[in-house]
Specification:
Layout: H1 4-41, E1 50-63, E2 78-88, E3 91-97, E4 111-116, E5 125-126, H2 136-166
Antiparallel strand pairs: 1-2, 1-4, 2-3, 4-5
Length: 192
C-alpha cells in the first residue's frame, strides 16, 4: 500500500501534466491566431493601381449551422460572399468574387469601384484595401499574440523538461511540521 506522501505526489504530478497540456493547447491556439493575423497584416495591395466600375450581381449569405443551437447563434455566424460583374482592359468579367476590406458592405445592384493589378484584371479587391496600411491593424494584434503563444509554448516545454529531470516522486514539498500527520507505516506495526 502506498503511503500518503506517495499518493499525494502521484496526484499532484498528474495535475501538473494536465496543466502543462492545457498550457500547451492555449499556446498553440494563440500562436496559430497570431500567425494568421500577422500574415494578414503583411498583405499589401498598393500595386493594385488599375480601377474599374463594377456592379454587385449577387450577395450570397450562408449560415453556419454547426455552431450550436439557434439561441447560441450570433450575427457573425454567417459568411457573406459578394460577386460582381465589370469590364477592365477590354475584357468582360462576370460573377467574380470581391475580396479585400469589407466587401460584404455592398448590396445587390450597388455600383462599386474595384482595384486590380495592371495586367491581371481578374484579381480584384475593394479600393479601400489599396490604401497604405489598410491591413496594419492585423499585424498590431497578431505579433503580440504570436509572441505570447511562443512564450507560453516555451514555458510548457520548460515545465515538462524540469519535471522529467526531477523524477515523478520528487515533487517539491516542504518538510513535515510538528502538526503534520505521520508518513509511512504506524510505529506499532503495519496497517490493519
Amino acid at each position: 500500500m502506498r503511503s500518503r506522501r506517495t499518493r499525494r505526489t502521484h496526484i499532484r504530478g498528474g495535475g501538473r501534466i494536465l496543466g502543462v497540456l492545457v498550457l500547451a493547447g492555449f499556446a498553440f491556439v494563440l500562436t496559430l491566431i497570431g500567425g494568421i493575423f500577422s500574415f494578414v497584416g503583411t498583405l499589401d495591395y498598393r500595386e493594385y493601381t488599375g480601377r474599374a466600375d463594377a456592379t454587385v450581381v449577387e450577395r450570397r449569405v450562408e449560415s453556419d449551422t454547426d455552431t450550436g443551437t439557434s439561441r447560441q447563434r450570433r450575427d457573425d455566424d454567417v459568411d457573406i460572399t459578394v460577386y460582381v460583374d465589370y469590364q477592365a482592359e477590354g475584357r468582360t468579367f462576370e460573377h467574380v468574387t470581391l475580396n479585400g476590406l469589407n466587401p460584404d458592405d455592398h448590396q445587390e445592384g450597388d455600383r462599386v469601384q474595384v482595384a486590380y493589378p495592371p495586367g491581371e484584371p481578374g484579381e480584384i479587391v475593394t479600393v479601400a484595401s489599396t490604401e497604405e496600411g489598410a491591413f496594419r491593424i492585423f499585424g498590431y494584434i497578431g505579433v503580440p499574440l504570436l509572441v505570447l503563444g511562443l512564450a507560453l509554448a516555451g514555458a510548457a516545454v520548460f515545465v515538462l523538461v524540469r519535471r522529467r529531470r526531477s523524477g515523478p516522486g520528487d515533487a517539491p514539498y516542504p518538510p513535515p511540521g510538528p502538526h503534520s500527520p505521520p508518513y509511512g507505516p504506524p510505529p506499532n506495526g503495519p496497517y490493519r
